[in-house]
């Protein structure tokens, strides 16, 4: 009887020992699982933080970035200039009107014959429309452009004594002349600051997050507020040159862009430097130009004059 009792006690002890071991193993396993999960739990906030959107750019930061971009572009295009040939305000006004829906190069190849035959507003105002149309045919939309240049010439003759006015409010009253054309003339023929909001300018300032506006007048106002008025004309040249040469609409050459570190849209285009170089429409520096008679500073920098009509 004593032996049976002893055996039962021994079995109970073994069972208790096994239960304790099992409990300990379970606790150890649970602790290990907890320790393994701990880093993930600690990493979760970091992951969530990384997923948070970047803080909106402050007004001060935007102004600084915009002005730095302009300074960088000024170093790349120190000779940036209007790419329309002109010798006086009248020629620039007519050439700018003709540049709609065509290239500056095509206008430059066409206007020598126009100005040789009609050198003054009085001459063009009295011109035979059919003869003007024939000269302007290479520019496209030549009938509408003929009406515009003859109409503005008549207005200049009748209202301003044959002189191009130097005020915005007068210029925009002329046939075919809007704010963009007026600012081109004011900034480059009269030395009065203005922002030229063409298609290149609109595309780039939105790509750079300088503005979200789409209306040209509102773009002009918002961008003008970021820069001193004295910078407006040169700013327009820098942005337009960059848009024509590197920051293209469909495939910007991001890998060849001198302001890539400042651009929030970097990566929209080709980022490989070698592939990006092949997208450049001009060599670095903006050669060749679109003018038959470019400024001397441009020629001194190695720029080349464009070929006349029919020569290339």
UniProtKB/TrEMBL annotation:
Protein's recorded name: Endonuclease III
Family membership noted in the UniProt record: Belongs to the Nth/MutY family.
Physiological role: DNA repair enzyme that has both DNA N-glycosylase activity and AP-lyase activity. The DNA N-glycosylase activity releases various damaged pyrimidines from DNA by cleaving the N-glycosidic bond, leaving an AP (apurinic/apyrimidinic) site. The AP-lyase activity cleaves the phosphodiester bond 3' to the AP site by a beta-elimination, leaving a 3'-terminal unsaturated sugar and a product with a terminal 5'-phosphate.
Record-linked HAMAP family: Nth
UniProt cofactor(s): [4Fe-4S] cluster
Enzymatic class: lyase
Native organism: Streptomyces fuscus
Ranges of residues in domain HhH-GPD: 98-245
Underlying gene: nth
EC number in record: 4.2.99.18
Keywords of this entry: 4Fe-4S, DNA damage, DNA repair, DNA-binding, Endonuclease, Glycosidase, Hydrolase, Iron, Iron-sulfur, Lyase, Metal-binding, Nuclease
């Amino acid at each position: 009887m004593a032996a049976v009792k002893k055996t039962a006690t021994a079995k109970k002890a073994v069972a208790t020992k096994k239960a304790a071991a099992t409990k300990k193993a379970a606790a150890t396993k649970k602790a290990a699982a907890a320790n393994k999960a701990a880093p993930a739990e600690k990493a979760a906030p970091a992951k969530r933080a990384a997923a948070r959107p970047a803080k909106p750019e402050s007004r001060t930061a935007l102004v600084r970035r915009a002005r730095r971009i302009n300074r960088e572009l000024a170093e790349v295009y120190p000779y940036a200039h209007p790419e329309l040939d002109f010798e006086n305000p009248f020629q620039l006004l007519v050439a700018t009107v003709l540049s709609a829906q065509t290239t500056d190069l095509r206008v430059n190849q066409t206007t020598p014959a126009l100005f040789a035959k009609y050198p003054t507003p009085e001459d063009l105002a009295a011109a035979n429309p059919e003869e003007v149309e024939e000269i302007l045919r290479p520019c496209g939309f030549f009938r509408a452009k003929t009406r515009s240049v003859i109409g503005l010439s008549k207005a200049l003759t009748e209202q301003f004594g044959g002189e191009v006015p130097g005020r915005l409010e007068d210029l925009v009253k002329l046939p075919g002349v809007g704010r963009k054309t007026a600012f081109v003339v004011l900034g480059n023929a009269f030395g009065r600051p203005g922002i030229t909001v063409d298609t290149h300018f609109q595309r780039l300032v939105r790509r750079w997050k300088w503005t979200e506006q789409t209306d040209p007048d509102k773009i002009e106002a918002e961008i003008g507020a970021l820069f001193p008025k004295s910078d407006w004309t040169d700013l327009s040249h820098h942005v337009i040159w960059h848009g024509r040469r590197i920051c293209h609409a469909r495939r910007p050459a991001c890998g060849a862009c001198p302001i890539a570190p400042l651009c929030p849209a970097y990566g929209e285009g080709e980022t490989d430097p070698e592939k990006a170089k092949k997208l450049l429409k001009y060599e670095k520096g903006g050669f060749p130009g679109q003018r038959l008679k470019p400024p001397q500073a441009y020629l001194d920098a190695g720029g080349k004059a464009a070929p006349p009509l029919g020569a290339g």
